[in-house]
Fold each of these.
Amino acid sequence: MPDFDETNRGHSVRAGREAISAVKLSQRLTADVDAWAEAHRTVRSDAIRQLVELGLRVSSAPSVHGPVRRDPADIETRATEQIGRMLDPSLSVDERERRMRRLIDGPPEFADQRVDLPKHDE
């Protein structure tokens, strides 16, 4: 009786052998896979396997920076911290703050084009 590996999500696979899977792809996706395979000098089946492995690695890799944050206050805080690390430490506190504000707020001549700032009627 052959050895079976039951760890393959409920599918029986002979131990020591790779499973063969059929996938249904649109014509466009097939053409994209074939182009990728040609660019990487491989055949379609190997290209599909490599692309699936790559996708699984990327999707399961823990994010180095944590979840994507879109809170404007958080973004400004993080930008200020990063700029502070990049500025010359020998600058005076006033000059460091002036440079940070200019980088965070942008040049005054572009203030009217900032979509993230409230518009002030003059």
Amino acid sequence: MTEKRKKTERKVEKKEKVVGALKSEERRIGTRGRIFEGIVIKKFPKRVTISFERMIYVRKYERYAKSKTKIHARLPEKLEEEIKIGDLVRVQECRPLSKIIHFIVIKKVKNKEEIK
């Protein structure tokens, strides 16, 4: 192989590098953007719903208010049996996979028992 071709192959490998995302023969889902941690509140085939609290500044009252956010995330096959309702998981932004799914589960952080 020529050196030029080797360099382009290395660049392609770097771009296809996936952090805990779905790695199948047919499809690769690359991750990018923001990372969140939240508790799994619902579990579906190939998808989970996570919830987490965040603080929002209210200008009118010059104070902070708690707000809950729900995110739908793709659940890779290799993590499907490992993750259960109540677990703390880390999700990262990816390309839009459907109307509501824009995140993918990277890894399980803690069990339900470890959180309490």
